[in-house]
Amino acid sequence: GEPVQIAMSLDIASISSISESDMDYTATIYLRQHWTDPRLVFDGNQSFTLDARLVELLWVPDTYIVESKRSFLHEVTVGNRLIRLFSNGTILYALRITATVACNMDLSKYPMDTQTCRLQLESWGYDENDVTFTWLRGNDSVQGMERLRLSQYTVERYYTLVSTSQQETGNYPRLILQFELRRNVLYFILETYIPSTLLVMLSWVSFWITLDSVPARTCIGVTTVLSMTTLMIGSRSSLSKTNCFIKAIDVYLGICFSFVFGALVEYAVAHYSSSQKCAAKAPSQGPTSELAKEMEEVNITNILNSSLASYKRKISFTSIEISSDNINCSDLTMKTHEKIKFVLRNKMHRIINYFTIQNPSNVDHYSKLLFPLFFLLVNVLYWAYYLYF
């Protein structure tokens, strides 16, 4: 005959856990199924309840939960099943089921993510030529979603769908309950975002400490770096099996770690430049300053040419006498490779001087402004991207 029409309704008693690491959720539901069996019609207008053990003597749908990892029927104190028979042959079959169902999650925006999960009911052996599935009252067939109180999530919305599963053995009717869960980000702001931000701000304190205070500035830099490392490890421990995802919280902690590490490197650069500058000033203040002036390079050829033009006398170079009659100025000119070395040496000195910090105290002065400014700009871009895109 015609396919048996089975109308269903759900009552979500609880969703006990939602696991990001295993990507599933555990829910306890009351599943109610209605259908009509003309063989069970009897006279009268009343209905009566049958013992649950009589289920073995009746035809019941072979409904199962799609993508269920683990599920069981409650048996305390007896099997939690209800059979109610109406005079027109309609049967109400109710079950209390706890099931762990898979839910594919996209954690790229964790903890500012919204997850969409499904609870799918399908016939196992009877195809659409034998049975058809419908929701009893549309979206009103699902109850209890408004009463749910979850630890990390808030139910945004839910809706019901009617679909067909195409398998190799045939097409089977399927009912879908789809619901969206929005994560409560306030907990993560208090636990991770605010502490990491304060650690970045703490690293900026070293900019107001003089360069000579090596222990103080080093202690602040190393402490903040280690604290940021602890925060990063702690945030990943709760999602140890999903470290392959680059989550939003990982991006923010990486940004904070970069700023904290940059503050430590900034002091190392400033202190090194200050030490080099002090070392360069030290020789010019000692007795060797006159010797350094005497060692300045002179153009020997120009001196000789001017001397030969004005005077006809001998010139002595480090105990070697050269006569004005037999001097050969071409021998005193610089060779080609010596000129190349001289030019390259000057170029290198200019490049080094260009990258040399002339005033190391300006490094801290500019860092006081640039570090907070860039951190504020990165935060604006970060929150705008993950909240609105």
UniProtKB/TrEMBL annotation:
SUPFAM superfamilies: Neurotransmitter-gated ion-channel transmembrane pore, Nicotinic receptor ligand binding domain-like. GO terms for cellular component: apical plasma membrane; chloride channel complex; synaptic membrane. Residues 192-297 form the Neurotransmitter-gated ion-channel transmembrane domain. Keywords: Cell membrane, Chloride, Chloride channel, Disulfide bond, Glycoprotein, Ion channel, Ion transport, Membrane, Signal, Synapse, Transmembrane, Transmembrane helix, Transport. Residues 2-184 form the Neurotransmitter-gated ion-channel ligand-binding domain. Pfam families: Neur_chan_LBD, Neur_chan_memb. It is found in: Apical cell membrane; Synaptic cell membrane. It is a multi-pass membrane protein. GO terms for molecular function: GABA-A receptor activity; GABA-gated chloride ion channel activity. Pi subunit of the heteropentameric ligand-gated chloride channel gated by gamma-aminobutyric acid (GABA). GABA-gated chloride channels, also named GABA(A) receptors (GABAAR), consist of five subunits arranged around a central pore and contain GABA active binding site(s) located at the alpha and beta subunit interfaces. When activated by GABA, GABAARs selectively allow the flow of chloride anions across the cell membrane down their electrochemical gradient. Pi-containing GABAARs are mostly located in peripheral tissues. Heteropentamer, formed by a combination of alpha (GABRA1-6), beta (GABRB1-3), gamma (GABRG1-3), delta (GABRD), epsilon (GABRE), rho (GABRR1-3), pi (GABRP) and theta (GABRQ) chains, each subunit exhibiting distinct physiological and pharmacological properties. Belongs to the ligand-gated ion channel (TC 1.A.9) family. Gamma-aminobutyric acid receptor (TC 1.A.9.5) subfamily. GABRP sub-subfamily. This is Gamma-aminobutyric acid receptor subunit pi.
